[in-house]
Amino acid sequence: MVLGWRSRKHSQRPGGKPELEVVIPNHFRCPISLDLMKDPVTLSTGITYDRESIETWFEAGNYTCPVTNQIVRNFDQIPNHSLRTMMQDWCVQNRQFGIERIPTPRIPITPMEVSEVLTYVQASAKRVDQYGCLELVQKIERWGAESERNKRCIVENGAAGVLASAFDVFANVSIERNASVLEEILSALNWMFPFQMEAQNFLGSQASLRCLVWFLKHQDLSGKKKSIVALKELLSCGDQKHVEALADIEGLGELLLGFIKKQISPTITKDSLSVVLYLISSSSSSNEKMKLVFIEMGIVSSLLEILLDSERSVCEKALGVFDTLCGCEEGREKAYNNDLTIPVLVKKILRVSESATSISISAIWKLCQVCKEG
User: Fold this and answer.
1) Beta strands in the chain (DSSP E)
2) Does residue 167 sit in the same domain as residue 187?
3) What does each C-alpha distance from 87 to 59, 72, 330 come to in angstroms?
4) Which GO terms describe its biological process (predicted)?
């Protein structure tokens, strides 16, 4: 029986006829989610599931078929086209009850397809063929937009390293001439975090870092956002040579402070604070220099203004930067001489988060040294 009906006992339509509701046939439901399947696939055990549900099941570390409890040794998922066609016909027959036809799912990409395209990307980059590379990266982006499964397949087959390498090549030749393909590559890299070592090294090259800073200065809001996110992720990997290389780029401090002051985007503000924190708290030789650069540019007062009214994550980042700057004499002096410092820090205690409370107390304790020194 494909179609089931159930009468609602206490509800009648005008004319005395009982109102009917649609019952989804059991064999159209996923045994895991119990919802109507959108992309039915059959395992080697003979049981059909919705693709997204069974993939989530396996990704959670399960190796058995949920219905039969058999150990699954072959993880191939065979699309059940016959069942999907029956389901689509059923949806069409019941559209008057608000049932929407399930779309025909796209076939997921395979590792072989990804490897092939990445080989072409490498060849295009080697020839410095920006238009050929642009088309290939856009194809990767389209694949990624189709499903999370596709994204995982792309990332697991080394896309980040290949794209970061191409980014380095085009940035080395000319940032201005190759801006379109560079931004497209950066857009794709933005959903491939965290980076493996190969991608880190290419994106952390002098040419790549200069390109990212150039994007911060010259690109639109979307380009700025992609660039600052990439910088934050790169520095979070903990390689001090990338921190030092970035700190040496002229004009970086002014750009980051400008983003913090103007707050043109929550993401840009928060990630700019993260980048500043990495620059001033690293174990590299450049951190003391960067502290002085930001202090002389007036970052202390800008941080206090942000702390007056900001959401929790931004507040925690700003407090982290403020506390780190109070670790040096020049930073403590600037903070101590600002009338907002103590009221703002005290206000953040027990009102934002446990982390914010801890950082605020740390900053106040450091400021007490000014009184002792005085």
Assistant:
1) 4-12, 18-23, 40-42, 48-50, 78-79
2) yes
3) 27, 26, 70
4) protein ubiquitination
